[in-house]
Design goal:
The chain is built from three helices and nine strands. It is α+β, with helices and mostly antiparallel strands and about 180 residues long. The longest helix has 15 residues. The protein is globular, with a radius of gyration of 16 Å.
């Protein structure tokens, strides 16, 4: 089922998320499936639970559509439950990011080139992975949503001034998007 994506201005995007226990979300696998379906319909590469109105520590990624430009993303489709970034490189990379919750806005964001993340899968098994380049960027962007941040929080003060009116318009419902959304 395709879910509406919550846009900038919705309180859930600024609310801290809660850990998921096996009994917290009884239909967790269905929720993950719905999030992947929503992500595909919106033509994105990542979607966090707050973006669909849930304040839980869950996000999904699917980098397969990016495989031509980022071959390492070809099979990068998974869910991250209760993730924690446990390490990040000193080396950083700047790249233009956008967000399904902030349609029409893209800005350069500086992020660590490599991260190590600890998370659970849909069966609540623990994993630890080191990700680099675009995989690391996708995960960091979605992880920020779980920490009540959006990518514009990470841009320079001068760039924040430039996008302020666009953000205000999104928050006021003055936006159009090609996917199902809620403002």
């Amino acid at each position: 089922m395709i879910l509406p994506i919550y846009l900038y201005g919705q309180a859930v995007l600024r609310k801290p998320t809660e850990p998921i226990e096996p009994d917290t979300e009884p239909n967790l696998k269905q929720l993950i499936s719905d999030m992947h379906e929503t992500l595909t319909a919106a033509e994105g590469c990542g979607l966090a639970a707050p973006q669909i109105g849930k304040s839980i520590r869950l996000f999904v990624v699917d980098g397969s559509e990016l495989k031509d430009d980022y071959p390492e993303c070809a099979d990068f489709k998974q869910a991250f439950i209760n993730p924690t970034i446990v390490d990040s490189s000193d080396e950083t990379v700047s790249y233009s990011e956008g967000c399904l919750s902030l349609p029409g806005i893209s800005e350069n964001v500086v992020r660590p080139k490599t991260i190590t993340i600890r998370y659970q899968d849909a069966d609540f098994q623990w994993h630890e992975e080191t990700l680099t380049d675009f995989k690391a960027r996708i995960v960091q962007h979605e992880y920020d949503h779980l920490e009540a941040h959006v990518f514009t929080d990470r841009i320079s003060p001068i760039r924040k001034q430039f996008v302020r009116s666009k953000l205000n318009n999104i928050a006021k419902g003055k936006t159009v998007s090609r996917y199902k959304y809620k403002h």
